[in-house]
Amino acid sequence: MLVFGFFDILAIYQTTNQWSINSNSVSLRAMLSLMLKSIFVLCLLVAVAAVIGPTGFNLDPDLLISIRLPRILTAVFAGAATAAAGTLSQSLFRNSLATPSIIGTEAGASFALALATLIASQQGTGAELSSPILYTTLGAGLATMLSLALMRFRQENLGSGGDTLGRLLLGGFALNAMFAAGSAFCLSILMENGAGMSLYHWLMGSFSARTWDHASGIMVTYFICAALAFRLSPALDALSLGDDASRTIGINVAKIRWQVLLVISVLIGSSLSCGGALPFVGLIAPHFARKLSKPHVKILLPLASIIGSILAVSADIVARTLRAPIDMDVGLLTTLIGAPYFIWLLISETYWAGGKSRD
What we know:
This protein has 359 residues and is mostly helical. Helix content is 77%, strand content 1%.
């Protein structure tokens, strides 16, 4: 949590020195207060998650260190990675609804994991993969590239005008359907062989039985990707002005796109390989961050990451306690929250009037 705070304060300092703060901007004091409050809420939720169990409060040190802390840390950084990927996706596509669960990135990562598990099972090496992050990252990267290629193909052949949001959503719907069908096919074969239940719960999002290997792996991956995203943030802010305007100030648009695409893929790949899919976290967290802060990527990334962690830890607490001792799938809870929120965004006049793509 302290590292989150360090990134937040560093981002605020760098951003407020790079852009002047006018009367319509959020003050530095207000931004610091917002960050500290967000970190406090996250720490409070982590404390609750650490002591609460299926049968009530339990402060057994062995249970806390060996089971709960790895699970909590995995949830914290899986939520942070998904939210950060959502923020970068919105900047890459210049659209506030372009998130990993909508444009097909998460579905592509899930399909890659399901396909790799099926192949391993058929070859007799077992249904457990030694390096699931490799497959999920490749799947996430492929899906994001396809979505971006569809978007650019439509723009180049049909012009930049028209319903850009509609084209994005239709392309994402098609990719989600295609990858979901592939995942279902792989899962049905694994179910016949009696090896599909663990994959099913993994794909639906679950932090159950997570170890220190999962927690440490996603922590390291998140901080490396966050550092890379911070470095790319000025170029991403410039891309909001359009490709032509970005090129005039010396930005290699194609290179930046590929670098951001790689970071998004690794973030989603690590999140899904450690905690499964967290639908709509990548939509809700960046949207709230944009409402609360300045629209600069250096500010949005740490704030959205904290909000994503809050959502993931909250969903995990509910998943552990709502039907105790049964562990519910976290992805189901985030979908129950995120889907109505997404529908509200679609019918909101704010997102249809003026073609709003970035705040």
